[in-house]
Amino acid sequence: MHEQLEQALREHIRSGRLMPEARLPSSRALAAQLGISRGVVVEAYAQLTAEGYLVSGQGAPTRVAPAASAERPPVPATSLEPRRPYDFAPELPDLAGFPREQWLRCLRAALRGAPFAALGPGDTRGTSELRNELMAYLGRVRGAAPEPEHTLIGGGFAHGFAALCRVLRQRGLERVAVESPGWHVHRLVAAGAGLEPVPVPVDEQGIQVDGLAASGCEVAVLTPAHQYPTGRVLAPERRAALLEWAEDEDALIVEDDYDSELRYDRMAVGALQGLAPERVCQVGSLSLRLAPALRMGWILSPSWLTGALTYELGLSGGTPAVLDQLALTDFLARGELDRHLRRMRSRYRSRRQALVAALAQCLPEAQVEGIPAGAFAFVSLENRLDPGAIASAAAERGVAVQPAEAGRPALVLGYANLTEPAIERGIACLARAIRA
Amino acid sequence: MHEQLEQALREHIRSGRLMPEARLPSSRALAAQLGISRGVVVEAYAQLTAEGYLVSGQGAPTRVAPAASAERPPVPATSLEPRRPYDFAPELPDLAGFPREQWLRCLRAALRGAPFAALGPGDTRGTSELRNELMAYLGRVRGAAPEPEHTLIGGGFAHGFAALCRVLRQRGLERVAVESPGWHVHRLVAAGAGLEPVPVPVDEQGIQVDGLAASGCEVAVLTPAHQYPTGRVLAPERRAALLEWAEDEDALIVEDDYDSELRYDRMAVGALQGLAPERVCQVGSLSLRLAPALRMGWILSPSWLTGALTYELGLSGGTPAVLDQLALTDFLARGELDRHLRRMRSRYRSRRQALVAALAQCLPEAQVEGIPAGAFAFVSLENRLDPGAIASAAAERGVAVQPAEAGRPALVLGYANLTEPAIERGIACLARAIRA
User: What are the percentages of helix, strand and coil residues in chain B, rounded to 5?
Assistant: First the structure.
């Protein structure tokens, strides 16, 4: 009852119908007027006073607070980012496919079942339940070899990688090898933490380990299961050479394992981390596996980095809400992630096929390269084309595509968040933009 | 073929990569994943079940047998932190008071109502809806003067303050003034970001502005509404002198506004930020207002810092999950935070009174100083006592208390997360520890 009254008064004040300084009837008068008990009015006045909508002094009448004016309407915090109907964003999963009801069920169970202590600050490393459940998942599905004490829960790839870069910088590291072409976020995050990103060439077999050795870097960040943007898998010989390099040079490999469960032809290659847990720090994320909005991920740390990483995560914060961690624990334990990924695999496979077919029809000169996996395709273009100009021309037609920084004309086309008809129409628009 | 698969599965179970109780994919799913016939998988599962590695019931999923002795049993990720029945932790709100059902209602509304795009990475600064709602709240309740474009959503105090310190460090800042006595987290986070914390004395009026000026620092982090740990409010003259200092020296004040709504004698003093939005960066958090587990907070940035802070938050991640932001928006709009804080104010007031009464009875020589506010009391002890030794002796009796780093014997006693009987028993134990 008093909530209804509060709501009504709040709306009147916000909308300006009750002006600042306006005097309210006494609680007795208003109660009589509305035919409700006086206690209800007193309660509503007290709440709105606490909220700052009303002011009342000893014996003085209750008034609308001077500052509670709606004179300054809330300025919308608009985003400059345009919304394009055909957004071939490579980093998005199918947002419509997010299993809302299942996630809600897990959240509800977490919220109802959590002991009081779970509402406290919690363990910086993540709840032990989630670390155990995630460890089992990554062992089972990714062939990783996580240890409970060296599995850390973070806020997604950038969060974990940034913390790692800061720790390495504090230890005197100055440079980090990155793939070229590679994901710009690797370079930006490393540079943000004070490390110089050193590009090492990637060819059809993946990163050139000779080039890596020649770079003199002690740390390299890689996407071995599905190189971004070329879409290739690190070749078995390269994989072996890479681990040998790490062993010989006493180096560290940062494995960005962003989409490995999404492979449409065969099982994904196992995680590098599983082969050399003390040489490989895997940083993973739920962004592409579930939804970027969750902002959750993990770090499988080599034992010698765990302490420093935990300290850095504790100091700099940003680890996920404990309730979300509890929900994820339940989600994993129920097999919901496996179920979701199975559903997405079949959906993305079809979308990829639609993309390949649309390209074959509208842009026969374009070549789709790389393995059928993940949420994007690497599409090489004719030599005379300028991908930057194409991206601009496409944008004017409502199509968002990204030029691939590949040393030759190519685009990265994400398809996971577009339906098949949208892919077809989007590629048709893109083709028109290229011809124009 | 099935022998190969059996072998692989067996190895995974033996090595512990597949943990006891871990759920295996269905034979159909694994067959599809591996591109082999389902019969092969069924055969392999049957063999391993016969061998005792797997268990499966009618219709139930196949799992790794509980007794499938991994050579290396899963190490429980235990915490070394002992649980003490009487934990006078100053940083905890009443965890049992967290409004679970209301929060769940908001989460449900957020999850059901969110557009698809809300499941994407979202705006680094936080959703515009939350920024607007929070801005209205802080203006109304805290007298802050936030602007929508300079209100940023972060992952709690440490997250926001760490990002701010990194930005300042990148701009060449080397030192930051901190209160002495003060909150150790200010010093640790600043040092973690490469800034030298410079202690400036705090007396009964709050920070000594003369000392601050003499320090030569250009940035100071302060708790003006309720100094930690002394429990005092910054005196009006000091407040004026502080803002004058900031103006004269072209300096920045970081306002740690951690508990200002929790005042039990009168309305809290308004936020410093409201007086000088371009000189004060307010970093706030829901930890004490709602629950540390939420890991949510905000930064009211001076306009000249917003761009750099947004970039840093984007690069280093750790901003809260978008769904949690949507839930908080709804929670604020329904007036739930105000309602919760009203309830907590009356509860904490009683608990504080119980603490004061218990101290008067069991430790009459102890003095409670500071204003009746927040979640802790500053308790000064007789000069001959050693607070460190008292804390150790109390810990053995199941009582956790923190020595105050105040230059004289004192304790910081948090009371918000303890019931009144627990407070009485805890203080009785503490008194026995002191006498012993």
Answer: 45, 15, 40
